[in-house]
Automatic annotation (TrEMBL):
Upper taxonomic lineage: Eukaryota, Metazoa, Chordata, Craniata, Vertebrata
Protein name: Ras GTPase-activating-like protein IQGAP1
GO cellular component: cell cortex
Superkingdom to which the source organism belongs: Eukaryota
GO MF annotation: an example: actin filament binding
Amino acid sequence: MDEYSELLIVNRPVIYVSVSELLNMHKLLLEHQDAISSDPSDMLRLILQDLGPVPTLQELLGESWADAGSEHLEVSLTLSNRFDIFEESDQPDARGLLLSTKQLIVDVIRTQSGDSLSDILRTKTSPGQEVHHDWLMMRRAQQDAQTPEKLKRNQSLVANSNLSLLEKKRKILRSLHRLEGLGVLRPPQTHNQILQMIAKDIRQQRLHRQRRGAELLKLRQTLCRLQEKSSFHSEQVDYYKHYITSCLDNLTANSKSANKKTADGKGKKRHPALSYSAARLQEKGVLLEIEDLPTTQFKNVVFNILPGPETGSFRVKAQFLGVDMEEFLLQYQDLLQLQFEGVAVMKMFDKAKVNVNLLIFLLNKKFFKK
């Protein structure tokens, strides 16, 4: 956690504490605030000053809630920045205005010197200062042209670079007045306040760069580990796919061998396809229902099950009164996945509901001899 963490969070953090814990924490902070924060201007002291003395249970919850056992009542507190200088409604506008004003002041100070910011803004610019300012802005434009598109500065900041030195001074004065109206700066020391903000940014720039470099290194290491893990899982998936295909091939081979022995024993060739009427499948419990078709018509519907183009796949053809209707490609692995997930019923042809376990049993018995 650092001063930039709050800008990155999507949802505000929430803590859950009991009322008694909340009161005890308030009491302990008041008793030991000298040891915790010795600086009179510390933010914690300002918060404690706003809160005042520790309230009673009745003052905190009200008379209607302050009964026996209410001190164990749990409350949820959404954390927010007490010292955020921006309101939620004007936050984007105020932040952008403050950032652009800082950039304008830095551009002016780099070109023109003075005893204070007020003196610099009131002093007229010379032609030599304008020429030096134009040269600095041209060099910045050349650097921006070499910057990747995603890392380029905001368009409003780029537009400010096209202003002359005198125009920038006028815009700074207007922006400072607007920032006062938004409550970001408080008169009469507005110039000193924004200079202190710029100085703080400069002091923390190196620290922020170091943190960003460390975070970038961590991200690269994490990406490398994720790539290694992804490669490992891909190899595992390929291995299991090969293993499952081998198992299905062995089951199919055993089934063909059994069918061949049966055919030799009976002196005729056995047809690999299965043909069941919907009524028969309903008796076996495989077929549960067919949408928009009464059970009295199930005898007119025939399902033909044939081996599919790939190992472990089946083609299910539906006929109604001897007329071919639709064809459904059934994957044996999909059935096993549904069984593993605990799904009892699946749909075929978007209308026929079948029992997954009994359908697997039927296929194992007729095709795999399992």
